[in-house]
Write a structure and sequence with these properties.
Distance between the termini of chain A: 49 Å
Shape of chain B: rod-shaped
Radius of gyration of chain A: 20 Å
Oligomer: heterodimer
Low-confidence stretches of chain B: none
Number of helices of chain B: 4
CATH architecture of the domain at 30-84 in chain B: Up-down Bundle
Helix content of chain B: over 70%
Number of domains of chain A: 1
Order of helices and strands of chain B: HHHH
Structural class of chain A: mainly alpha
Number of strands of chain A: 2
Largest sheet of chain A: 2 strands, antiparallel
Distance between the termini of chain B: 29 Å
Mean pLDDT of chain A: 87
Chain lengths: 224, 84
């Protein structure tokens, strides 16, 4: 119960500047990267015409997301954006699932991870828009339908980043707090596995999918 | 024995109360909205069962977007509890 609001820090001093690093998030992100790499290595080792279970799983994931991306962006952009979208989903999925193992914490429980991914999506979407439509047309769209609505449009774009990253962060953090509180209340008897099943596995999957889909939708809105 | 109540205690109590109210009222709207979305998706699947996969996917994304105000109130409640 006591460790709900606690964040562990590493503090570095570089001259006058003070660098604070959230150590748990950093280490767990490395663990997640390692898990994703291990999954990729297992899935691609001994590839065959008749796939084994791991290869089948990986092929299913890749196939599903390839179809989703080509539906949303069209054939022309599929090759370029499919790796990003698929990698984002797999990374977030492993991030949300890693909390199931005892002693591990989700990197997405830290606002810095989700906000970083959200800002990445924002810059990719707007970079795509500038490339696809040209800078002039891109800037012109901010002044539509009326020129004085420009601040509103800018705020609308920034609010997308806030909402997408706070949604993932709030869901994961809220789920983990409910798990901690209920586990404490029932002295760890009976209920916690089901709570992990719901909050970590189900909600984690849905939220990873939603984050990925929304990033995809933001990109596709910008190139239309 | 008279118990001293300092200003900080009142602020703490108000923050806790505010967290409860924020969560209670904030969860009302998203719950209603998600219920409506699920009901409409059920209707649509009943009318057109072959599109069930697409409808479920769209429903989940829509519900997750509708949920964001609830998540904001959760974040506000957490800030009130742990930061104030």
């Amino acid at each position: 119960m006591e460790n709900i609001g606690k964040v562990s820090h590493w503090v570095f001093h570089l001259g006058d500047t003070r660098l604070v690093v959230n150590s748990t998030t950093l280490v767990m992100t490395w663990v997640v990267i390692g898990l994703v790499l291990a999954f990729a290595l297992i899935a691609t080792r001994g590839r065959a015409m008749v796939p084994g279970p791991w290869q089948q799983l990986a092929e299913f994931l890749v196939q599903t997301f390839r179809e989703l991306v080509s539906e949303a962006l069209g054939e022309a952009y599929e090759e370029r954006y499919f790796p990003l979208i698929c990698a984002l989903f797999i990374f977030l999925l492993f991030c949300n699932w890693v909390g199931v193992f005892p002693g591990m914490e989700e990197p997405t429980k830290d606002i810095n991870t989700t906000l970083g991914l959200g800002i990445m999506g924002f810059f990719i979407a707007h970079g795509t828009a500038i490339k696809a439509k040209g800078l002039k047309q891109y800037l012109k769209e901010y002044f539509e339908p009326m020129f004085f609505l420009m601040p509103l449009n800018v705020v609308g774009e920034v609010a997308k980043v806030i909402s997408i990253s706070f949604r993932l962060f709030g869901n994961v953090l809220g789920g983990s707090i409910i798990i901690i509180v209920v586990t404490h209340l029932v002295y760890g008897l009976l209920l916690p596995p089901f709570l992990y099943g719901f909050f970590a596995l189900f909600v984690g999957t849905v939220q990873a999918f939603v984050f990925t889909m929304l990033t995809l939708v933001y990109i596709s809105v910008q190139i239309r | 024995m008279a118990v001293e109540i300092a200003g900080a205690d009142i602020v703490r109590a108000a923050a806790m109360l505010g967290a409860g109210i924020a969560m209670g009222i904030g969860a009302f709207g998203p719950g209603l909205g998600e219920g409506i979305a699920a009901a409409k998706a059920c209707e649509a699947i009943g009318r057109n069962p072959r599109e069930a996969g697409l409808l479920t996917r769209t429903m989940l994304v829509g519900q997750a977007v509708a949920e964001s105000t609830g998540i904001y109130s959760l974040v506000v409640a957490l800030l009130l509890i742990f930061v104030v």
